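Hi R.,

Here's the chain you asked about this morning:
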Amino acid sequence: MLSAPILTVSALNRLARQALEAALPLMWVGGEISNLTRAASGHLYFTLKDSDAQVRCAMWRNRAQLLPFRPENGMRVEVRALATLYEARGDYQLNIESVRRAGIGNLFEAFNQLKDRLAAEGLFDADNKRALPRFPRGIGLVTSPAAAALRDVLVTLARRAPHLPLVLYPAPVQGADAAPRLAQAVATAGRRAALDGIDVLLLVRGGGSLEDLWAFNDEALARALRACPLPVVSGVGHETDFTIADFAADLRAPTPTGAAELVSAGWHAAHQEIAVLGPRLERGIERRLETLAQRLDRASLRLVHPSERLRQTRADIDARAGRLARAMKHRLEQARFRQTALGLRLARLQPELSGTRQLVAQFGHELQRAAQTSLRQRRERLETLASHLQHLCPESVLARGYAIARDSRGRVLRSVGEASAGMAVDVQLADGTLHTRVTGAGPDEVGQKD
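And here is the predicted structure, written out as tokens:
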């Protein structure tokens, strides 16, 4: 009879480990931590127990450093682990992949159920999301006054849009009463938006565990966010954290700082555009001023003073009068020459018509009188025109008791509608100028001398 093979202890433990790992897949196990040891290498060793049994556990450093919280003795947890055997000692143990506090699995289930139910109602539909104002007049903020998120938002807005007013609607962001008070703060912000001058709302909180952020997974808060008349930006937790409030808000930011950057994006971009457009505007204004200065110079060259215009008019009248006098003299000389010529012709013909000679002489005298009368009438008309022109001269008009009113820029005021109370007015008289100020302007109102 052949004897059975003899196994070494190492081979036995190896077979036991392989059989154990094959029989028990990766699973979740719940219990209480005890005998916790943190090795210098970063590995964690502890015992997971309940009222009737216990099992050794080991969590290697690459897994332990990813824990979102610090395990302690007496803490109830749920571990995702693989059952195995530590061959060197033959100890049965659990190799831990991840750890969560007891009850988190239920929280995840409740989170997913609420999310699915609200999504089925259409509460998260993208078509119902409201766009953020590009240039908000004011920003509302729902968070705790003691939260680090408040400081992050203030620092970001001070850097990107320091002129924007920020209205805080305080509410706790963690605890049993946090969810209803957050919903109440959102409702208050929507109700007071016009009075407080805000047109966008931030809902922010710093990072934390699932339990710390659970207040933002409240149905009442989600409905308050959708009922709020303002567009809402949520910035809850870190980039990997998602809450029901994130889905209900009009826009989700990965962090509180990101939320502040989103609402100030328009102003921040405008500042950068102004920095570029400012020099272009200055150059455009300079070119426009240069063009207007050239036009002003050309216009000033064509501008003639009234006294010079009167002088030119007088000279033109004198020239016309001289030409008229010379023309009348020439016509009179021609008439006399014709008269002499006719007389010579008559003399050569030796007419016997003495009566005709007398008639011719009479016509000559009448022609001379007519010429003199015409010359006198034209001279009188010229004098009348010169007198009228003299009457129209501004100095003559002022001498008759009239005055010329000008504003501070020298423009002539032709109507009381061009004057206003308190306006400085210069009144030119025949012998000087009065500097006055208008105390009232209207058809029946007059100015008062300073």
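One quick note: The two ends are 143 Å apart (CA to CA).

Cheers,
M.
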